[in-house]
Amino acid sequence: MRNRVIGSLAASVLAIVLFSSMGLAQAGPRGGGGRGAAAVPSPPHDPHDLSGIWLISGNGGGRGTAAVSQWSAELPTMTPEGLAKMKANHPALGPRAIVPAKANDPIGDANPQGLLRTLVYGVDRISFVHLPDQELQVFEWGNHWRQIWTDGRKIPENIGPFWYGYSVGKWEGDTFVVETAGLDSREWLDGWGNPFSDDLRIEERWRRVDRDNLELTVKFDDPKTYTKPFVSDKKMYRLQPKGTPSGELLEIIFAPMDENSFNQNIRNPAGGVTKK
Prior knowledge:
Blueprint: H1 2-27, E1 52-58, H2 80-88, H3 115-120, E2 126-131, E3 134-139, E4 144-149, E5 166-172, E6 175-181, E7 201-208, E8 213-221, E9 230-231, E10 235-239, H4 256-270
Parallel strand pairs: 4-5
Antiparallel strand pairs: 1-2, 1-10, 2-3, 3-4, 5-6, 6-7, 7-8, 8-9, 8-10
């Protein structure tokens, strides 16, 4: 817990600095900025190389007050099975938030965050490492890693369940398309308690807009939980500069001994719960 708090605070400060610098850059050169300023061309980069450390810099409708998910401002109608699972989930965040001590969020007991929540979390960073037969993602939040196989294989039948799924990827023009199945449905779709089933399949589309900005959209297909497939809002990630604190991954681990201590001594008493 101690590492998580320190890491999240550091990442938040870095994000504020980053957004401020982005705003200044968009304003144009000093003295000549504004609408009349010429657009600054992107520095040279390889659109097929995603290597580097990235931090989410925009979260689409998922951050709006009217949103129902961290992924999208709208979700399709849930099936009866999906609706029942959603009602059984009691999050500490979002439109249905309750007191954290009375929530049943899986990560409250130091369980793995899972792929979907890690991608949309928005505070900690993600590293892409290119290897000959795969793209390796390393996640700062929880210090987990994920393999995306690029050697032409297909997703095996009846795979998983895994917290981070089984993924294969390929390039379609300038877009890296990743298909994932075998996700463990004990986790949630997002921190707001929206569910998914073990049958969920997702398609991520990563596109490097320019040298410093990476765009992600995700298509969700889970007929057990939702009445039709849906596509997320666009999520934007910002490349972190090398040789700076923001360009390095911190150790942010959910250690059960730390989480249990935090829950018993801080979270639960604050929520009026003496035992949980």
